[in-house]
Every structure is written in C-alpha cells, then in structure tokens.
Automatic annotation (TrEMBL):
Residue ranges of domain PucR C-terminal helix-turn-helix in the record: 384-439
Gene3D superfamilies per record: PucR C-terminal helix-turn-helix domain
Occurrences of domain Purine catabolism PurC-like (ranges): 14-145
Protein name (record): PucR family transcriptional regulator
InterPro entries hit by this protein: CdaR-like_regulators, PucR_C-HTH_dom, PucR_C-HTH_sf, PucR_dom
The species this protein was found in: Nesterenkonia sphaerica
Length: 445
C-alpha cells in the first residue's frame, strides 16, 4: 500500500481532506498506514466478499451491514473481508459503525490492531462513529477526480477513472447485464447523476477521418487522442452550463452522454450544452487534433436506467445519419433545425431514417425500378420534380406551380402525363409511393 501514485492523481490524503470528510466524526484505526496511495474511484459496498466487485485503487465505503451483532465471531469474517480488499488491492476503507453496534466496533478495533502489529504496511481504515452521508463524500470525490483530470494538460493519455467507471455502467446496461433501476441509481450516485428531475441521453459519434471532408483516416494513436480531447470538451461544456453529465464509451466510435436536468426546459438545456460543446472543441483544436462528430438525442427519461437505454435510440439515429449525411445536398433544407440546435433527433430524419437502414440492394433496385421505371425519357427530370413538389401536404396547386416556376395549366399537363405513364390516377397514396421511391433512389442509387 505504499504506492505514491503520480503527480496530478487523487490520493487517500486528498479524500480525507475534503470538506464532507472533515465535517464528519471519524478516526483513523491504522495510524501507520500510508495515505499516499492513488484513488482511482470510490465504491460503496456491503458484500462480505467484495473482491470480485472491485477493480483496484478504489476508496471503499461500507456500513458493514452484513456483520450483525448476533454473529458469534465477528473478527474472523472481518479479517476475510479485509484480506479480500488487500487482494484487489484497494486504496482505503471507510466504515460507518454507530454506537448501537458495540461488538462490531470492538472487533474492528481488534482486527485493525492485529494488522498494525503484524508488521505489514496496512490498509488505511477509517471509522465513522456518527451517521454520515456517503453520497456527499462520493460526489465530492467525483468532482475532485474530474477537476484533477481536466487540469492535466500533458500530452500523454493519463488514466481516466471517471470515464472507465461510466463506460462500465453504460455498457452493462446496454448489454442487458444490468437491469435494476435501484442498482443503476446506486452506481450513478457517486457520479452525481442520481435523483434528477429529468434525464436526457446524447450519443456522440466521432468521425474516423482526420478532418471533415478529408480522405485521410485516423490511426489508433490519433483516434485515442481525439477521444481524449472530445471527452474533456464534453466535461468542459457540462461545467460551463452547470449540467451534471455521465460520459462513457458505448462503442469504438461512440461516446454516450447522460445529462441530469433540474430544469423544465430540457430541449433548451440540451441545446445550451451542445453549443457549449462546440465552443469547447473549437478551443481545443491544437496539436493537429480536430475532433469532428455528430450528436444525436434519445427521448426524455425520468430514470437513470431509462436514460442509459435511450442511448441506444440515439445510436439508431446516428446509424441512419451515416448514409444520409453524405447525400444531404439532395434534400433541400433538410437538417437545418438540427444544425441550429447542435444535435439530431429521430423526428429530424422523418422517413429517411428508416429508408437509410434498408440494406438489401436487390430489394432497393426492384422497388425503385418498379415505381420510377415508367418515368423515363427526356422529360423524366421535369416529371420527378412535379412528384416531389406535389408530395408536400402543405402546398396548394398554385404554390406548387409557383415553386416549380411554371403555370398552373402546365402543372396539370405534367400531372396528366405522369398518370398516363404509370397507368394510375395520382391519388395521395400513389403520390406518396412515388415520392418514397424517389427518396430511396436519392439515398441508395
């Protein structure tokens, strides 16, 4: 336990110096223990065999609720508990044992003394003698870890415990391995995300090219550096907008973001956050790193569990955008609202969101050919333009003619020609089918 850590890392002594720690009544049962071990994360746990639940360098908090006063021998299970923590190893242990559990207090003192006299460098053990809000301490540690990480301006990619823990939570929920709302809230508490009025889910997809419009693809080192810069930009945006944010990786190119909102204007909060993110990225464009990305939003959520699962909905939007965006110039005015607010929603895609996901070339060619094949010839483009215009439900025939720059009689003549070519009256259903075929052609052909 004598690891002194690295500059910029949070140590056990930093945690003990936090205001939430100093305001509580506690004593250090292992005064010889070094307080210089780095703290990677905090973990609240009551399992008597905790090793499998930990990854190392955690500051562990526990009420030792499984160690009841009616247990015949408390010292032996406590020794096993501490040995498991040693095996990980963790950075420190803080326990709350109140006056109504005198036997457990006595056993804890005895075990700590035995470890102290054993000659080994002991695990720091802190005893809270009065009730303490672990959530306040864990949130303070979270903020300290984030501040230290943001302050690290070195070029090396330092360990990011916040990102690692958040990534693990996101991936466990999305994979279906974690489906308990209570457990998700417990895991989110140290991150400062539990108990919000509403949550919003954003998925950020990093581009794999060196810059927008470039054909040069980023190598592994470039992708790692770009992700690092982008994650820090997300945190800077959260700080600027006073928004609590969970930031973790959901796939190789996607970063999941869950915002905890206390406002009644979630869409405005999302917009403020995304605009702040754009500013933060602009400021970070140095050393050849130019993060470019798209952001998509899921639906509003009332729980942390639902918010994380909504990241999948946001990811579906991004999957559709992969095909739509390279062809966006074919859809006049499309995406203007998303560009203004800084993120995409499923509603922005309309039917294109579904058409973009059709991946059977044979089916695509069959449908387009069957619907649009009759509209061949020298006037094909004129007739297609008519179909696009009349497919708008908000325009009258006069407005359609004005939009096309033709007279109403010319418009009606072209509509009759379309009907003769396809062999059907242009009912609303036929118009929508032809328009669907045109959109499919725009996306895939």
């Amino acid at each position: 336990m004598s690891d002194t850590g690295e500059a910029g890392h949070v140590r056990v002594s930093d945690v003990l110096a936090l205001r939430s720690f100093q305001e509580a009544e506690w004593q250090l049962l292992t005064p010889r223990a070094a307080l210089t071990s780095p703290v990677r994360w905090v973990h609240t746990i009551d399992d008597p065999r905790p090793a499998a639940l930990l990854q190392g360098k955690e500051f562990v908090f526990s009420t030792l609720s499984r160690f009841t006063e009616d247990t015949e021998d408390l010292e032996e299970p406590l020794g096993i508990f501490l040995a498991e923590l040693d095996s990980v190893p963790v950075s420190a242990l803080a326990v709350e044992v109140l006056a109504d559990r005198p036997r457990l207090r006595e056993a804890l003192h005895a075990v700590a003394l035995e470890r102290y006299s054993g000659g080994a460098d002991p695990l720091p053990i802190v005893l809270f003698t009065e009730q303490v809000r672990f959530v306040d301490i864990t949130e303070d540690v979270h903020q300290l870890l984030m501040a230290r990480h943001l302050a690290d301006e070195s070029d090396r990619e330092s360990a990011d415990p916040l990102f690692e823990v958040s990534t693990q939570l996101i991936q466990e929920v999305l994979s279906g391995h974690l489906s308990s709302a209570e457990q998700v809230n417990q895991r989110a508490q140290p991150l400062g995300l539990a108990g919000a009025a509403e949550y919003r889910s954003l998925m950020l997809r990093l581009r794999t090219t060196a810059r927008r419009g470039s054909a040069a693809r980023l190598g592994p080192a470039g992708r790692t550096r770009t992700k690092h810069v982008t994650v820090n930009a997300v945190r800077t945006a959260a700080s600027e907008t006073h928004t609590r944010a969970l930031v973790g990786q959901s796939s190789d190119s996607d970063i999941g973001i869950v915002l905890a909102l206390d406002t009644r204007e979630p869409y405005r909060s999302e917009t403020d956050f995304c605009r702040a993110l754009g500013r933060a990225v602009a400021k970070s464009r140095s050393s050849g790193v130019v993060p470019t990305f798209e952001v998509a939003a899921g639906e509003p959520s009332a729980s942390m569990l639902r918010a994380i699962t909504e990241l999948d909905s946001a990811q579906q939007v991004l999957h559709s955008l992969e095909r739509i965006l390279p062809r966006a110039e074919r859809f006049a005015g499309w995406g203007a609202a998303a560009a203004e607010r800084g993120f995409w929603r499923a509603a922005d895609l309309g039917v294109l969101g579904l058409l973009a996901r059709v991946e059977d070339p044979g089916a695509i060619n069959w449908f387009v050919s069957a619907q649009l094949g009759p509209l061949a010839g020298p006037d094909a483009e004129e007739l297609r333009a008519v179909i696009r215009a009349v497919a708008s439900p908000t325009q009258s025939k006069s407005e359609v003619a004005a939009h096309l720059g033709i007279s109403r009689p010319t418009l009606y003549a072209r509509l009759r020609r379309v009907e003769r070519l396809i062999g059907h009256e242009l009912t609303d259903e036929v118009i929508h089918t032809l328009h669907l075929a045109l959109l499919t052609e725009d996306l895939h052909c």
